[in-house]
Amino acid sequence: MVANSVRFTTCTFERHGAAILEIFNHAIETSTALYEYQPRTLETIEAWFATKTAGGFPVIGVVNDSDTLLGFASYGPFRPQPAYKYTVEHSVYVHPDQRGNGYGRMLLQWIIQEAEAHGMHTLVGAIDAQNLVSLQLHESLGFVKVGSLPQVGFKFGRWLDLTLVQLTLAMPSHPIDG
């Protein structure tokens, strides 16, 4: 159940960098949500924000009345070639103490609306095959499983399978080449 006293905010490195670092590092250290071994540093988060800003990609957060970051979401290029310009890959992360409160759903719904408003046509998610909560959330919002990449990652002493999900949006109405 989502609390009524939360709101969306545009995240910035200055205001939310440390909280985003904490959320990312918890995911790296305790889960297969990120196929990374080493915790990130504040410098890597600053560079991540700079890349998002340079590309015109949003970073949105859900905060409570105290302006505490409960979760965040973003999207960025799916692949670097220009023909993929209408396709983005998204990510959604919720603070471990806030999971199960509906913030992931709120953030994913926001990502869908934001991508559509900016003329994107396809949203792609790459989710660990064992992350059933995330897979079910995506399915409930219209994403379909479009592929599986068996044993592409290795973490915590085991091979990891990656599931690709996709949501096709109505936009853009007049795509152009180049």
Describe this entry's structure for a reader.
With 178 residues, the protein is of the alpha+beta class. The protein has a single domain, classed as Aminopeptidase (3-Layer(aba) Sandwich), CATH 3.40.630.30. A 7-stranded mixed sheet has the order 1-2-3-4-5-7-6, with helices on both faces. The longest helix is centred in the N-terminal third of the chain and has 18 residues. The radius of gyration is 16 Å and the shape is globular. The model has no long low-confidence stretch (mean pLDDT 95).
Condensed summary:
By secondary structure, the chain is an alpha+beta fold. It is built from 4 helices and 7 strands; from the N terminus they run βααβββαβαββ.
Looking at the overall shape, the CATH architecture is 3-Layer(aba) Sandwich
Which class do the helix and strand fractions yield?
Answer: alpha+beta
Please list the strands of the largest sheet in the order they lie side by side.
1-2-3-4-5-7-6
Beta-strand residue fraction: 25-35%
User: Structurally, how many domains make up the residues?
Assistant: 1
- Say how many strands there are: 7
CATH class: Alpha Beta
Give the fraction of residues assigned to helices.
Answer: 25-40%
Terminus-to-terminus distance:
44 Å
How many H/I helices? 4
- Mind telling me the CATH superfamily name? Gcn5-related N-acetyltransferase (GNAT)
Summarize the helix and strand pattern as letters. Answer: EHHEEEHEHEE
CATH topology: Aminopeptidase
Which consecutive residue ranges, at least 5 long each, have pLDDT under 50?
none
Gross geometry = globular
Average pLDDT over all residues: 95
Main β-sheet: number of strands, strand sense, barrel status?
A: 7 strands, mixed
Rg over alpha carbons? 16 Å
